[in-house]
Amino acid sequence: MVKLIATDMDGTLLNAAHEVSDENIKAIQYAQSQGVTVVIATGRAFYEAQDPIAPTGLKVPYICLNGAEVRDESFDIVHTS
Fold it and tell me: Which residues cross the membrane (predicted)?
């Protein structure tokens, strides 16, 4: 059983217009409804990563700066290095 999905942003989650497609939004919502944690994993800083995600209304944790910062669904920092 899948418990966690981690996805990169550029070229993976985001389309050519740097937006999350409706199809990806629905897939994330479905995964979450099945109890799967979906995490954004990126080299971007949090505020750069959040810009294209915020309009979707998705509540997801973020692994930013190549793992140097981790934030929960409420955007609270839970780990830094």
Answer: none
* pTM (predicted TM-score): 0.92
Give CATH for domain 4-80: 3.40.50.1000
For 60, phi and psi rounded to 5 degrees?
A: -140, 150
Active-site residue set: 8
Q: Give the confidence band of 1 by pLDDT, cuts at 50, 70, 90.
A: confident
DSSP 43: S
Give me the phi and psi of 28, to 5 degrees please: -65, -45
Q: Strand 37-41 relative to strand 69-71: parallel, antiparallel, unpaired?
A: unpaired
Whole-number Å distance between alpha carbons of 31 and 25:
10
Q: C-alpha distances in angstroms, 68 versus 1, 23, 33, 58, 65?
A: 28, 30, 28, 22, 5
